[in-house]
Amino acid sequence: MPVRSAHVAADAEALRDDGIEFMSRLCSLGARCAIPTTTNPRSVDFERTAEVGQRPVWSERERSIVDAFDRMGARRCDTCINYQTVDNPVYGEHLAWGDTGTVIYANSVAGARSNFEAGPAAVAASITGRVPRFGFHLSEHRRATVRVEVRDRPSQRSDWGALGCLIGRRVNDYWKVPALVGDGLRPSADDLKQLGAAMASYGSVGMFHIVGVTPEARTEGEAFGGIEPVESFVVNPGDLADVYDGFQADVEKPDLVVFSAPQLSLNELAELASLFDGNTVSPVTRVYVTTSAMVKSEAERLGYVRSIEKSGARILTGVCFYIMAPHELAETFGYRTLVTDSAKLANIIAGYGFDPLFRPTSVCVEAAMTGRIPW
Amino acid sequence: MARSGGPDLVLTGQPGYGPTVEGPALVSQHGFSARYDLNRERGVFSRKEHDLFGESVVGVILIAPVSKGGIATSWMLREMASRGVAPLGIILHSTNPVIVQGAILAGVPIMQGLLPPAHQVVRTGDWVRMDPKGGTVEVWRR
Fold it and tell me: Residue A351 belongs to what domain range?
């Protein structure tokens, strides 16, 4: 079936030499984007590779990938928040997006229709303008099947990530669709972004509903399509705090504090700017913030970049931390303990041998300033 | 390596992808993602809390209940296969599109939804012959 746009996750850390050769060969054979095509983050911020301490081979690999995308005619935005910036999804349209966070947002928040299109599959969709007709393109797969009663109401943005973590772990199936039911659930776009990214990361979930919030769930009846849920559970008071407490460190000093995954929106950068403004990052801790080039340039104009970087924190552009070959950074610098307000990053980075600590944004900022983990 | 005598167990389900392969089983009760769980240079589980931490996927039929997480597994399986450190085959109870697309691109046989569920009845070290076309998996106890 035809799709309006493709979003391709193809970073050097995933592709390595074999995937790069695959992309170059496609280009040489004349592959060109038939539909608007955006790109997910890269493994390097070309301006700051040396400062971060990445080996030059990662820039070289990324240049080959970038060259292939330029030849194909992709819109190289290098962002995992395309839905907040360059390609807002529209209700009912069909898409071929990769990066699970973009897909769950498009499906759930906008009511657009996409499956998780893996990197090579999204490239194929970009070239042909088409995808196989299955999964979330079909109404019968979009209906809620799991009822989640939320009695522990999130009170800050990272709480939505904690909620996504909890639901993802429990549902843990691409083919199940949770519907959240609860009084006073009023998430912002950034809250929904954290919720979805965490749910997709911890449970490979591709779509959720929030009754009274998301467009295919104006009522509980609409969400479930009049069919009984196959599973129900309750998120009780204290459950969200338990998600944070599930991450513990055996040292007092964080090696890294990272605000990333997904890249930060302008509103999230504004919040960080006000928290970092006039403060100084501890000399024993490195602090990274990731965003897209488009958001960064706005943040520069509005003075947020200056407030954040004057403290010693570094804003990296067009990247996401976990695809920056973090296992090599760990080896080079002895990084182990990483504090983050992203539930998603806390999940993935453990695969690279890090000890992650997931904490609310204000606690992460405190850890960055003091060089100590507050709790 | 051919097995003498009939299999101890036969699991059946829908057709999968790829040629018939056989080898020793490596069974997890957790999910699987190449980016989330593996040191891909060596094909070894590097996620400390994973029940296969330290185990190698090279030369085994990997069996798990679900595929988890992100998009990257698609590129990674192919890259691992190009260096000979990919699993011989993958059997999951529930897949997402990413692992299926990735396995097909990598040429790694993959099956899903067998009954009884493979991760519940097969044990690590059992000899497994998976026939994706026929939708059957034969198991010889070690």
Answer: 248-370
